[in-house]
Amino acid sequence: MGVELTVASEEPSTLEAVNPAGLLTLDFEQPERAADAVRVFSAQYPINGVVGVDDTTAVVAAAVATRLKLKGNPVHAAIAASDKYLQRELLAEAAVPIPRFELRSLEEDPTAIAKSIPYPCVLKPVRLSASRGVMRADSPQSFVTAHRRLRAILADPETAAACGDRARQYLVEEFVPGYEVALEGLVVDRRLHVLTLFDKPDPLDGPFFEETIYVTPSRVPAGLQAAIKDCADRAVRAVGITDGPVHAELRYNERGPWLIELAARPIGGRCSAVLRFGDHGVSLEELILRHALGMSIPSMQRERLAAGVMMIPIPGEGTMRDVRGLAEAKTVPLVEDVQITAHPGERLIPFPEGSRYPGFIFARGETPDVVETALREAHRRLTFVLE
Ligand code: ADP
Predict the structure, then answer these.
(1) What domains can be seen in the chain, in order of their start residue?
(2) Which of 30, 97, 257, 345 could make a disulfide contact with 252, Cβ separation 3.0–4.6 Å?
(3) What residues are in contact with ligand 1 under a 6 Å CB criterion?
(4) What percent of the chain has pLDDT over 70?
(5) Is the dihedral of CA 308, 313, 319, 325 positive or negative?
(6) Which residues of the chain have pLDDT under 70?
């Protein structure tokens, strides 16, 4: 794209001194201070656009955009998008269909809460992502067990730091049954452009919510897709998102679409590689950067082919020693790539305590069905050796 890039991170890079224009250290836990630091930096190295890559940096990017008068979200919108409780409140106010919810403190007696709520319900941390710590409970007994696990997850110092003042709280929600889809969008001047709708063909009924396959185009009937998109559009406006990427999870059932979660960031992990736009196969990242920089966007039309990604399920708890069958998995027709992102020696932690997939499988083909079959076949050929 011919764009010069400065990468900001919360830990200093060893190479920062030799590449002062390209590497910058910011305190992500203090977005306003980070914005001040970027303003000082920009006096020497002009900044024309800013993009966050996850929930935390989306808030920092919003603060920077506000301070430097760049394209971006208001800070309150970015915060609401990363705080499940604030988000629920705004969505409820705007009458966007969401599950019933209550904010609870970890200090409260779980046995008493367990007796007072309807089932099935979902317990979730307020500020984590990737389904980490999200658990379904079907009875008072399973509520108390889930509560114990959630408390242990939030007791980890790094996790607690990421949750800030929400580390001692959690949400209890009504469990919404139904089929789940994910929506990838780009908001331009307050208007949501739906880039794609992904089907999630594996049921997500809990008790934990590990993702697996995302495939697009969605096979959901057109009328229902329109209702889903309308629900996401209302959520974007309710949260106050004005610009940049959004990723939303929605469910639908006989009562219509439900907004489960809206984030002001692109799809996570390596999944974005599945998306290509326009005649030249432009990436999602290029669309996002073009928008942030005020450059023209030639096309937001996804390619004609169906495409899918499998977040490889975490195969168990243990230290990963080896992955067998990689070459065989890559030769499955329609499979484009199999990327193992876990390293030998890495400790794999299943949901709900963990949330890091060991890798990703990508496929493209004429229909979503053949793509889904190819992803499953490639996965069948992989064997993870754990110790
Ligand atoms: P995160 O941001 O950590 O991914 P979410 O709130 O999106 O957390 O929850 C993760 C997943 O858990 C959702 O994609 C959905 O499958 C499931 N889930 C969360 N809340 C509910 C709910 N109230 N009813 C049904 N499923 C839910």
Answers:
(1) 7-79 (no CATH), 100-174 (3.30.1490.20), 177-304 (3.30.470.20), 306-387 (3.30.470.20)
(2) 257
(3) 84, 99, 122, 124, 128-132, 134, 173-176, 180, 204, 209, 249, 260-261
(4) 100
(5) negative
(6) none
